[in-house]
Amino acid sequence: EGPLRTVVGANAHHSFHRAAWLLGLPAPVVVPTPHGTLDPEALDAALATTPGPLLVAATAGTTDEGLIDPLPEIADVCAAHDADLHADAAYGGPLLFSRTHRRLLDGLDRARTVTVDLHKLGWQPAAAGLLAVRDTTDLAALAHTADYLNADDDTDAGLPDLLGRSPRTTRRPDVLKAAVTLRALGRTGLGALVDTCMDLAQDLADRVEKHPGLDLHARPTLTTVLFRPHDTDDTTVAAIRRSLLTGGRAVLGRARANGRLWLKATLLNPHATPGDLDQLITLVEGSTHR
Ligand SMILES: Cc1ncc(COP(=O)(O)O)c(C=O)c1O
To answer: Which residues line ligand 1 (CB under 6 A)?
Structure first.
């Protein structure tokens, strides 16, 4: 059996390429995603020609467009090829807190492993990344005994054994803030914050759509809104973003979609107001006509 082959969409986060390199694995096989999400048929074709063992990474909340790969169909394709499925839910994972939006993550439970970044839609300071495994035997490689940390008789006597909880040994108590947040806000409280940001994104998209001087890339799936001034070239779009950033007026991202460059507003502040959205539009407009 050859080395593990990882298969990702072109829409996947660059960390997969770094991880493969760090682990000494072959570079990931990249499936083109011209429409922003991983197409199950294209994945099927890629898996048919890639020797196993196979690990597919799907994304629930893409970095550029905030899209969710079709998880149930991808899970079917993975099952047909005996490939493991990882879901990168760094951005979209906390939709699970929302009764209104959790259905968008249908199929997530079919992944063998899931990652979530609570420093995005979880409002934690970094570091706040989580790895969830369906089968805890997947964590067996973390099981080590080091006499100075978790000798059997100490563990039997009730001392905590933290060695198997993380790939790191000495580490910050990063989980404490997440635990405190969950205790304080609960699932419902976090769900309400998610819902507010989802509504804000739709609100910004409405405002962009109504604005004659701006183009909206697409209705948002998550809280990412891609837009650009009408009749502008990519160089100008990039210059507008830099000028707002260096002038200390707005921090917008940039993303390529449909072969063009877009301004990216990622709505992650539940306290943003409609006035803030209007102000952002005014700032972009003001930079356009200079
Ligand atoms: C989809 C996705 N996966 C993974 C990451 C990487 O997360 P981290 O910042 O924890 O390295 C990001 C960060 O933007 C992301 O958008």
So the answer is: 13, 15, 59, 61-63, 88, 90-91, 117, 129
Position 288 scores a pLDDT of 78
Rg (CA), the chain: 21
Is 24 within the bounds of a domain?
yes
Beta strands in the chain (DSSP E): 5-9, 29-31, 54-59, 84-88, 113-117, 129-133, 214-216, 224-229, 253-257, 260-266
Please give the pLDDT value at position 289: 62
Provide the residue range defining the domain that includes 282: 190-288
Q: How far is the CA of 149 from the centre of ligand 1 (A)?
A: 32
3-state secondary structure of 155: helix
Mutate which of 11, 15, 71, 121 to test ligand 1's pocket (most atoms within 8 Å of Cβ)? 15
pLDDT of residue 287: 87
Question: Which of 117, 140, 171 is the last residue before a domain boundary?
Answer: 117
Mean per-residue pLDDT, 186-199: 98
Which CATH number does the domain housing residue 195 bear? 3.90.1150.10
pLDDT at 290 over 80: no
Question: Is 252 part of a structural domain of the chain?
Answer: yes
What distance in Å separates the CA atoms of residue 196 and residue 191, rounded to the nearest whole number? Answer: 9
pLDDT tens by residue, 75-129 = 999 999 999 999 999 999 999 999 999 999 999 999 999 999 999 999 999 999 9
